[in-house]
Write a structure and sequence with these properties.
67% helix, mainly alpha, Arc Repressor Mutant, subunit A, 211 residues, homodimer, Tetracycline Repressor, domain 2, 11 helices, DNA-binding, 2 domains
DNA sequence: CCATCGGTGTTAGTAGCTAACATCGGCACC
DNA sequence: GGTGCCGATGTTAGCTACTAACACCGATGG
């Protein structure tokens, strides 16, 4: 009952991993991604991953709750909620999500792309991974919505704005992951997607009709 | 090789079910939903569903490819793509998706809600079902994007517009499914969500800032 | 009256995932 | 410098979702 930080989201205080544990985790993830890329996700068994990493399959599940999680683990999510909450409360919920997400992605280093690109490519062609990715997104959305609501946005607006922005980004990313190689960087893809949701731009396009 | 209709999406022509088969399928679905609601999705085994329906577990899998599919089967999806394609090509991609989806939902009968509400409620509290629902959405999005692109919208616009509208609707629905009982109808929820994405409304809200 | 065929059951197997318990190796503390 | 604790891992056994192969049964039609 003596929680020290408010950022705790319900998990029972995962103590920091030892060096050894961190190395085992990294080895498992690297080996798994390599196998997934080379022979496909469904065609790779957990047993194979564990053997290639020199551990037993139980050790794999001690580090990753599911086979999917090793491919969709994403460290960006908390940053997004933070960036959204940092937007001025005077803006609409939609603009706060849109600009917050855009800022966070524009600030992200463009070098992480290599491994991340492989992961997104895998997702775009593996239904089970797409499903998990969306489910991850769900938690991200919950956090963003909370951030919006606790800083004054009406709940209905927060829900719709978050769903729209996150949905647009995810769909754009999956489309990006399925494309052939001459393509923009991941960050550019996200920023471009969010720019296309600029209300000014949307309204300009909408007004080309009569009335 | 002798396909008769163009609406075939790649599946090998599923012949219409016999009466007996349709009854078995309906019985399985009804029994499954009942068990899911009463004792939870994870806590219900396929064996239990099959037994309660008076068949073997193999018969269950002949009708539903996964345990999740019996809870997330959704007949609305094809209608959406149709409604989007029916929007005038002079509109922006975003407005075509937004209005198409809105029209389709506004036209849907408000009576289907009972069983559908149960299904969405289940989704909102079962991670595995949410994941499947999102994955279903993926196919819907693909169809909508195709419809937009083949009728003149730039691909990037189509992808972002579809992701935003579908994401907003899904998020709103899951939020709706998690709410307590005094709540609007499912159709009203969707229409309200899409109205909140009206570019005019977004811009009005955005302009309350300086510049 | 028999052949066919759709719907179903039986059996056996694979893979993801979990629980219980044993083991091994390093680190702290005396 | 022993010694005991504890974290990381292994072993084993088991459950559940899901699949393949094949046998059966009942209706329908020639």
């Amino acid at each position: 009952m003596e929680q020290t930080l408010a950022t705790n989201t319900g998990a029972p205080a995962p103590r920091p991993e030892s060096d050894r544990a961190a190395r085992t985790r990294a080895r498992l993830q690297a080996v798994a991604l390599d196998l997934f890329v080379r022979q496909g996700f469904e065609e790779t068994t957990v047993e194979q991953i564990a053997a290639a990493a020199g551990v037993s399959h139980m050790t794999f599940f001690r580090y990753f709750p599911t086979k999917e999680s090793v491919a969709v683990e994403d460290p960006y999510d908390p940053l997004l909620a933070e960036a959204v909450a940092a937007q001025p409360a005077s803006l609409s919920a939609f603009e706060r999500v849109r600009r917050g997400t855009r800022d966070a992605m524009a600030a992200a280093p463009p070098s992480v792309d290599l491994e991340t690109a492989a992961r997104i490519g895998l997702m775009s062609l593996t239904p089970a991974l797409r499903a998990r990715a969306w489910e991850n997104t769900n938690e991200t959305q919950r956090v963003i919505i909370d951030a919006l609501v606790t800083t004054g946005s009406p709940r209905a607006d927060a829900v719709v704005a978050t769903g729209a922005c996150v949905g647009a980004v995810m769909t754009a990313l999956l489309d990006w992951g399925a494309q052939a190689d001459p393509r923009p960087s991941l960050g550019e893809c996200v920023v471009d997607a969010l720019d296309r949701l600029d209300p000014r731009r949307l309204l300009a396009a909408a007004e080309e009709e009569t009335s």
